Amino acid sequence: MPVDQQRNDTAAPGPTPAPAPDVDHAAHEADGRPDDRQLRTRRNQMLRALLGPERRRLSRAVALALLENICALVTPLLIAAAIDRGVPAAADGRWGPLTAYAALALTAGPASATLKYGFLRYSGNIAQTLLFRLRCRTFAHAVRLPLAYHESAPSGSVVARLSSDVESVEEVLEMGLDGLFSALFSMVGTVAVMFWLDLPMAAVVLALFLPLYLLTRWFRGRSRRAYRRTRGVTEQIVQHTGETYNGIRAVQTFRKEGANGARLRELDTGYATARAASGRVSAVFSGGVKLIGNLSLALLLALGAIRIADGHLEAGALTAFLLYVHRLYDPIDELASFANAFSAASAGLERIGVLFHTPGTLPEPARPRPLPAVPAPGRVRFEKVRFRYTPASPHVLDGLDLELEPGRTVALVGTTGAGKSTLAKLLARLYDPTDGRVTLDGADLCEVADAELRSSVCMVTQEPFLFSGSVAHNIALGRPDATRAEIAVAAEAVGAHDFISGLAEGYDTDVRKRGAGLSAGQRQLVALARVMLAAPRVLILDEATSSMDAPTERAVHAALHRVLTGRTALIIAHSLTTAAIADRVLVLENGAVVEDGPPAELATGDGPFAHLYRGWLSATGGRPHNPARH
Ligand SMILES: Nc1ncnc2c1ncn2[C@@H]1O[C@H](COP(=O)(O)OP(=O)(O)OP(=O)(O)O)[C@@H](O)[C@H]1O
């Protein structure tokens, strides 16, 4: 169980409102063949949610691009006028018109360059805002996804959403606004001017758009598929590297370096193949556009010559026309690169869209019910609780009725897979029961506000997770507003103060990644100090299975004893020592309580606990110690 103590305060502001889910994400992600239409719908929803708030700034950027293109468009017209009017006038000794055309052309150039500069800076800012928003929202939504999502999604898939998928969007935004706006305006403006210059020649240019359109359609379909494949492989690479480095100890212990390296090479080959496929598609498209461009130049040159001979066109106008043909096909290439990047970003957005489509956390109650203030808080009831992880899997708990009295410690024992952790997860409301209800002091957990529940029910996992930051910061997770003195009191209460004071920087010592700087026992003590500070009504503790040396185990048990005093606690016990400190032991088998009573009483009987007890006794050489009670 990766959750030590889940708190909401790490989550960024509200995610993009996710539409009602219609498809199970697991099915989508697992078979890797999502429905095209649904993916596109989600991508468009994402785009709308992202671009919506930037409508004003985007219109300003569009206006700048438009002005820039108008300035760029007039230059060939000025050249045509200079050739057809200015040069003949100059030949007659009137230099005025030629000078005027030259001056205008010289002004249009810098004006266009200045506007381009303004547009690029402005659109760059918009792109960064959009990216910032996308990354924050994706992160905020991902951290709020229910545990069920994280337990079923392939490891690293969320990291891939936040890294490579967001980066693909970054690429298209960086080049896209320029590529798209400028290219579109340039093309539309060019065609309009061509029609003004010469109708039949412009009609020929327009006719040549048909093969261009067909080529573009082919390209878009192919490149979208190619990029989806690329993103799929990228995700596998992220997952594989993440898994390798998260489990580096196991990798080295089992000498898996070679095998994992080979797997990475295999994935990389897949990536290269997928990239090569998308490269081929782009090459065919670019080549096709160039071919059509050159054909149309030749065609227009021939047609232009005929029209000049017929007296319908002047040489300057033909020159301008041919310059415009260049202007027409250059942006198509730009559009192709944009379409390429858009395909990649599309695939990324679609995948982020799938994530957004998964509803965040278990639903918060519409009208939260405060936990009642009772004289003896911490009464827990499981009422006819049935639970299964997925609709297809069998019930782990099937009609469980159970009551935990306030202030008492209950040890949960049983064979592996009996349902101990599941019961604990339901009590921490990491999952909701399929049927029945779990109550705390009479309030259904589903009706209690998330923040109140998190501070009232704390869970300490087998390997308590320490966040990077100081020891003090890690203890204060239990109550973020706690003062340094309160933190020290909590640490002292669990006997952690001495070892913390002995650290290089005391409470300010950075526990470093995953608490690598602290021993397993010290991490347990920090986690218990966290609980001491949080003072929850109910404590759930998954006892560490890894063996500690005797003094450390004694220290942890002594701390545990202090934390448990006067608090309702449910301990998943893996050892006799822990079971013995409980007031009551529950033996769970196949999701049902098969034995229930004080440990000393059950140990002398002939039931399942007595069996377990004797097994533990023989494993520990017949010397059960109970330091916490001594
Ligand atoms: N995330 C999950 N998705 C589907 N099934 C699960 C999941 N977690 C547990 N199960 C199944 O639920 C049953 C009970 O598991 P649980 O982890 O509660 O047992 P446990 O008693 O805590 O076992 P252990 O002592 O080994 O931790 C098992 O059959 C297990 O396979």
Could you walk me through the main structural features you see in this protein, from its secondary elements to its overall organization?
There is one protein chain. The chain has 630 residues and is an alpha/beta fold. The chain has 2 domains: 34-234 and 278-357, Up-down Bundle (ABC transporter transmembrane region fold), CATH 1.20.1560.10; 380-629, P-loop containing nucleotide triphosphate hydrolases (Rossmann fold). It has helices at 25-31, 36-51, 55-91, 96-143, 147-152, 157-197, 199-207, 209-246, 248-253, 257-309, 315-357, 420-427, 450-456, 471-475, 484-493, 497-501, 520-534, 550-564, 576-581, 599-604, 608-619, and strands at 380-387, 397-404, 409-414, 435-440, 443-444, 457-460, 538-542, 568-572, 584-589, 592-597. The protein is elongated, with a radius of gyration of 35 Å. The two termini are 31 Å apart. The structure holds adenosine-5'-triphosphate. Adenosine-5'-triphosphate is lined by residues 151, 389, 393, 396, 414, 416-422. Residues 61-344 form the ABC transmembrane type-1 domain. InterPro entries: AAA+_ATPase (IPR003593), ABC1_TM_dom (IPR011527), ABC1_TM_sf (IPR036640), ABC_transporter-like_ATP-bd (IPR003439), ABC_transporter-like_CS (IPR017871), P-loop_NTPase (IPR027417), Type_1_exporter (IPR039421). Residues 22-37 have a biased composition (Basic and acidic residues).
